[in-house]
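*** Protein under study ***
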Amino acid sequence: MIAPHPFLPVFYLPDLGEDKIHVYKVGANNSLSNFTNYQQPYGSGPRHLALTSNGQYMYVLHELAVNVRPYKVDQGTGELSQIQDDQPIYPSNATFSTNISAAEIHVSNDGRFLYASNRNLTAAALIESGDPSDTLAVWSIGNNGTITQIQSAMAHGARQIRAMELSPAGMTATAGGQDYIVAGGLTTNNTFVFKRDRQIGTLELVAQVEGTYQPATYLWLG
């Protein structure tokens, strides 16, 4: 997923095959130049990245390593500097294996929380019902851009959470002052809606819809 900086003439492109983050600069007449690159750990598979709305911090999701790498963004040049070790997405009591992968990542509209999804995670011990399920990881974002995991929200019965979308800021008023996250199980054909606590960032499952065939993306309307 390509991510433009909110005000600098640069954008960032994760390259899963080469394990790099490419930074492109937009020049005169909309010309593009590969400004610089940032090598990620070999075999980590950078899939997506998310910027805070003020452009100060960026978070790279590694699909194959199943973790997030936090960066600080230079506000003059757009260059990146790593500010924290890679942070795992899967729950602390789940065992990492090559079958697990990561899929999606988003920063909340207020820039205070970070959300990412797991795929192919078997974490039956975490589910009250005993059903295996993938999870949505939740972190708080500190004033210095570092992240602290505060929750592994269970999508009860969902497997392969490829799609996850936060409700846009403009919807909050029409949704009774609430923010939401929708996520889908690609191989289990179901959709889950979580209410997002705007103060502490945690998620609460409020709706589940079966029979949504292989959900791969979502679009909020309103």
About this structure: The two ends are 24 Å apart (CA to CA).
